Amino acid sequence: MDSLPLGLYVHLPWCERKCPYCDFNSHETAQIPEQGYISQLLKDLEREAAALGDREVSTLFIGGGTPSLFSGEAITALMGGIAARLPLAATLEATMEANPGSAEADKFAAFHAAGVNRLSIGVQSFQDAQLQALGRVHDSDSAHRAIDAAKAAGFTRFNIDLMHGLPEQNDNQAKQDLHTAMELGAPHISWYQLTLEPNTVFYTSPPALPDENLLADIQDVGEALLAEGGYQQYEVSAYGRVGDRCKHNINYWSFGDYIGIGAGAHGKLTSHDGGVRRYSKTRKPDDYLSDSGFKRVGEKVLNAAELPGEFMMNALRLNTGFEIADFTARTGLEWSAVAETVEQQIARGLLEQSGNTIRASAVGRRFLDTLIAEFLVEP
Ligand SMILES: C[S@@+](CC[C@H](N)C(=O)[O-])C[C@H]1O[C@@H](n2cnc3c(N)ncnc32)[C@H](O)[C@@H]1O
Ligand code: SF4
User: Fold this and answer.
1) Is the CB of 63 under 6 A from ligand 1?
2) Are 21 and 132 found together in one domain?
3) Required cofactors, per record (predicted)?
4) pLDDT in tens, 303-361
5) Do 353 and 327 touch, CB atoms closer than 8 A?
6) Which of 232, 251, 270 is at the close of a domain?
7) How far is the CA of 84 from the centre of ligand 2 (A)?
8) 111 and 213 part of one domain
9) Cβ(124) to ligand 1 under 6 A?
10) Residue from 17, 25, 26 whose mutation best tests the ligand 2 pocket (most atoms within 8 A of CB)
């Protein structure tokens, strides 16, 4: 098979303060061991690169944690080190996550000069009361300043992360946040519904969240507002015009390949014989810092029973769905492996087919977990 598009994910696992709703691999620290960590990342990458031949990387995503806590010098060293170890596409999309603290906005120009060409700014809300309820370290003013700084630094492509369904939020407040992001000219908006994740403070001490009816109202008014503003929904939580969409994430959802480096980073690679392999890296930052082998933890080749579920879990998140030929090319399975289930879900109204394209219907998108479960193997 032809090589699939290849992305590179780099995980920087530290934050100024752990947010009470967050279950990402992120750890509070006062001092980041920048040099030691960048050096480990590059060794990790070297091992990965050795197995890849000359496959070109088309997208890079530096996520966290809070990558913008790193200095401009550290990100310059990281970007240079990556370019020295892997062939990068001339059109490389290089995204970095940033929190809207003022110390961080001061570094945006340095990140841009280092080769980062897309910022994803974690605003969450433009309302101070809501930011406090979420335990964020920044206020609305600093979010505005960070967006100004991103534009001044030359970022023509940036994303604003917003969450909705926040403690005691009503639909007007949720609308107001979207309005502000649109007024500020965000080319892309990620609009996530707050979820209570196990192992978080919010899970053990839940705040008062909007009830189901209000959540559905917020979803409806928000989607309508985004559509009016020209932000096309292309994935469950992602909105933007075609040229502004996040190519790195689209590659995940299209079941493309990606390398993962850094503490707890995940990777997925497809080999020439069609085998699809998933792995992750040592999760705890301290263990990763002292790791000399960069062993892939939990490495596993997906079997024929697991592949349909893994594919659908990604591809059905995209509003455009997928082409039948891509299912075969990316899983190595015949269409007959899922044809009957697909037919059943079309009959149920959860999937729709047009020519050779399959996608979730509007109802299917609302009950996406139920739909995907039809393709998962029984435990
Ligand atoms: C990797 S996180 C963090 C990026 C950055 N550190 C920040 O917090 O601004 C990416 C995004 O996921 C979203 N997110 C995190 N936890 C969430 C949760 N429990 N429910 C919904 N969205 C969540 C937030 O919008 C966040 O900006
Ligand atoms: S939401 Fe962002 S800033 Fe907060 S703990 Fe998670 S990764 Fe860190």
Assistant:
1) yes
2) yes
3) [4Fe-4S] cluster
4) 999 999 999 999 999 999 999 999 999 999 999 999 999 999 999 999 999 999 999 99
5) no
6) 251
7) 30
8) yes
9) yes
10) 26
Specify the number of domains making up the chain: 2
**Residue 154: cis peptide before it, omega within 30 degrees of 0:** no
Q: Are residues 310 and 229 in the same domain?
A: no
pLDDT in tens, 78-129: 999 999 999 999 999 999 999 998 678 889 999 999 999 999 999 999 999 9
The CATH number given to whatever domain includes residue 321 is 1.10.10.10
Same domain, 324 and 208: no
Q: Looking at beta carbons, which pairs linking 70-76 to residues 24 or more positions away fall under 8 Å?
A: 70/12, 70/32, 70/34, 71/34, 71/107, 71/110, 72/107, 72/109, 72/110, 72/111, 72/113, 72/114, 73/110, 74/34, 74/35, 74/38, 75/107, 75/110, 75/111, 75/114, 75/116, 76/110, 76/113, 76/114
Are residues 307 and 246 part of one domain? no
Q: Are residues 142 and 227 in the same domain?
A: yes
Residues 354-370 have a mean pLDDT of 96
The number of the ligand nearest the C-alpha atom of 238 reads 1
**β-pair partners for 93:** 59
- Give the domain extent around 14: 6-251
CATH number of the structural domain spanning residue 130: 3.20.20.70
229 plus 322 within the same structural domain: no
Tokens of 96: 């970095």
CA-closest residue to ligand 2 atom 2:
65
